Amino acid sequence: MYSKDKLTHPQMPPLDTSEFNQLRKDILIPDVRDLNYKEFKNQIESHFRKTSVNHLKGFEAFTSHDIILGCQHYIDNLISKNGIGGIQIFEHDYGYYKKVCPDITYTTLKNLVAGKPLLMAMPFPGHLGIHRQMREILEICTDKCIDVHLDGSWLTSAFDIEFDFDQTCIKSFAMSFSKAYNLHWNKIGLRWSRVCDPTDSITILNRSEAIAKTNLYVANRYMQEFGIDHLVVKYKTQYLDICKELKLRPSNIIHACFSMDRKFLYGMKNFFN
């Protein structure tokens, strides 16, 4: 029934679906000048937290909320503040870091440097789930006073993830709609921070309401139409069937899987519509 010819490697694009395509065709942008930033922040923050396929907690400790143009915006902001050499990054994280710095030196659990920020994806791309050493990483970061910043770009296409954000070393995290709704064409998301930095560029953009309100309007339409777990709820059973039939190892990410020996990661988008 299924063919491995549909697998993609090394790319792992987000899933799409016919109802997303239909909404894209239906959206007509009205006058959006009266959209309220504070109301939108409350709506999107609540929407992200309504996941039923993951068990996430600790949001209350992060009282500063900022709209971002996807998790790429969050990542680039951290790089601009610290420099790519001023951030610790693990191997097998987002491939973008290697493109920004081809000779990048990745950190390891043993080599984490005290006081130097750590940026990592959660879920972690190379593991297609929470990093297998996440507990140890957070313990070391707490002991060494390392600020941790979590890129949750894949969290909205994940399932069976249990995580508590309220851990001392975690200073910020972000999520977006790009993987939840294949909304890369209208990047939008939210950053949660423990402390507001008034000199931070994302903070400044939010305070001056310089994020385009058309992005907010489109995001609102998707929130009205679809739950944050829409793709997982719709496709999880089929995803597991495909993995079983093709002898692939399922992961915690609806758009990706492993080879049985875990040596290769594959994208699953072409199996779904």
Radius of gyration, Cα only, in angstroms? 19 Å
Q: Which class of secondary structure composition applies to the elements?
A: alpha/beta
Order of helices and strands: HHEEHHEHEEEHEHHHEEE
Number of strands: 10
Silhouette: globular
Uncertain residue ranges: none
Number of helices: 9
Q: What is the makeup of the main sheet?
A: 5 strands, mixed
Give helix % range: 25-40%
Q: Given this structure, which CATH class of the largest domain is correct?
A: Alpha Beta
Classified in CATH, the superfamily of the largest domain is: Type I PLP-dependent aspartate aminotransferase-like (Major domain)
Shape-level CATH architecture of the largest domain:
3-Layer(aba) Sandwich
Q: How many separate structural domains? A: 2
CATH topology (level 3) name of the largest domain: Aspartate Aminotransferase, domain 2
Distance between the termini: 15 Å
For the biggest β-sheet, the strand order reads 2-7-6-4-3
User: Could you tell me the mean pLDDT?
Assistant: 96
Strand content: 5-15%
Description:
The chain has helices at residues 18-26, 37-49, 70-82, 96-100, 134-143, 178-181, 201-207, 213-225, 230-245; strands at residues 55-57, 64-68, 118-121, 148-151, 162-164, 170-176, 189-193, 248-249, 256-259, 265-267. It has 273 residues and is an alpha/beta fold. It has two domains: 4-22 and 229-271, no CATH class; 32-225, Type I PLP-dependent aspartate aminotransferase-like (Major domain) (Aspartate Aminotransferase, domain 2, 3-Layer(aba) Sandwich). A hairpin with a 6-residue loop joins strand 8 and strand 9 (256-259). It has a five-stranded mixed beta sheet with strand order 2-7-6-4-3. Strands 8-9-10 form a three-stranded antiparallel beta sheet, covered by helices on one side. The chain has a two-stranded parallel ribbon with strand order 1-5. The chain is built from nine helices and ten strands. The radius of gyration is 19 Å and the shape is globular.
